[in-house]
Each structure stands twice: as structure tokens, then as C-alpha cells.
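I'd like us to work through together how a protein chain folds, taking it slowly. We need material for that, and I hope you will provide a protein of your own picking. Go ahead whenever you are ready, and we will take it from there:
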Amino acid sequence: MTDTRPSTYAVVDLPEQPFVGVTKTVTMTTIPEIADEIPGLIDWVLNHGYAPSGAPFLRYLVIDMARELVMQAGVPVASPVETAGDVEAGELPGGRYATTTHVGHPDELEGVTRRFLQWADGEGLRFDVRPSDHGDVWAGRIEWYETNPAEQPDMSQWVTRLTFKLAD
């Protein structure tokens, strides 16, 4: 699927954001395995007396497109929580982020992300990312899934917000 819609880009300041999540190592073809964790995380939050304070997300921690990606699926909460078992508590870093919002099918996100990175490069923005032996380590490369699939089954109408942390 190719998305040719124009995008709007911005730089915003975001506060630290507590969340509950799960971290997994996946490949480009097995990313759905981490995305499939989101409903269980939402259930965990609700069953433990918390309420989600924003959209669920996928966070790319380490990216080696040819081999593996270390990713988190997460659900933001209002304040830090105690967790147990496979669910972990964390905090997304605050700071300056480049952002864009996409309305369309999730399969279009690869092209949307490529154009987003080109825009940031053209603006001279530097992301908070560093190389390692295992791939690029990102402080905050996040896809926020703003649409509830149960409420909007038409995937061409789904809203996804990308936020990539900028270097200080």
C-alpha cells in the first residue's frame, strides 16, 4: 500500500510518561507478535484499578532492520505503578520530539516514516539515537495507536501518531 497524502510535521515538548509494558525481541516479519501484547496490557491496567492515560504504543528500542528489533508494547498510565510477572513498569523520557500524525492503513507507516525522517533531516533535526553492536539504540521512537479497532474497523481510517525524541 502506498500513501501519498501530505503530512504535517512539528516539534513538541513532551513530559515524562509512566507506562506499563512488555519488551520483546522481534524481526521485521514478527512485529505483530509485540503488537498483539497491547490488548493484554490494557486488560492488566484496567484489572489492577488503573486507567490508561493515553493511546497504546509500540516503542522501538534497538533497530537492526536486517536482524532484530528490541521493542516495547505499552499503555500509558497517570502515575508510576508496581508491576509483577511479565508486565513491566517504565517511563518514556520527556523532552523535545519531532512528531507527525497519519490517518490511514498501518501498512502505510513505512512510507510515512521514511518521509518523516527525510523532513527531519532537511530541518537539521537530530534524533536521540546512537549506534551499537546490536543496532541503533533509540531513546524514544514511538508509534501511538490512537484508534480503537473495535470502534473503527476500517483500517484506512486508523490514526497513528509518530513521535521521535530529539537529541538534547
In short: The chain is about 15% helix and 40% strand. The chain has a mean pLDDT of 93. Residues 109-122 form the longest helix (14 residues).
